[in-house]
Design a protein that fits this description.
With 205 residues, this protein is an all-alpha fold. It contains eight helices and two strands, in the order ααααααβααβ. It has helices at 8-16, 25-58, 60-65, 73-82, 92-98, 123-145, 156-165, 170-190; strands at 153-154, 201-202. The longest helix has 34 residues, at 25-58. The chain starts with 7 loop residues before the first helix and ends with a strand.
Length: 205
Amino acid sequence: MQTGPRSIAPLLERLADESDERIPAVARLALSPLADQMARLHRQIERLDRAILEQCRRNEVSRRLAAIPGIGPLTASALAASVTDPKMFKSGREFAAFLGLVPRQSSTGGKERLGRISKMGDRYLRTLLVVGATAVLRHAKAQGSAKAQGSAKGTPPRIWAEGLLRNKPFKLVAVALANKTARIAWAVMARGEKYRKPAPMAKAA
């Protein structure tokens, strides 16, 4: 039996079809109020998504941020609304540190390394960026598995992330990519730049 969010829509369709005998009458009676609530919630989410998208399109900073991989309308709008003066941060690294996306300092010399992050700063923005980075990595993995090994091309950030995934846990790489995304977002906001997609390059054999 299919489980998870993707199974909700088919289940709601079955409940709405009274001629579908796969659901017993008693179960249909019990589940119908829940189905009505879920349908209303789905409509509310759709309205909010449209409102956020419209707000993003009206804001010049949000539009530029939304062009960065891993940043959608919600994250772009949240960044533009929360970071009203990006120049208060001296660099992209300082902005990433504000979000809690920089690695904790090592006790053996203070050398920065891929590992646990500080998790200080704005938790909401940090979560949005990590979720976006996770989506980018999953998409990259799906594309990579569909192409012959060694023949595919990718952007430098994607190749960098795929290289880390060979030796590091997925979650750690997602956080590292979120760090890079935060630095790019800072440059877009503080310098008024537009995101330029890096040119594809061949993967090393």
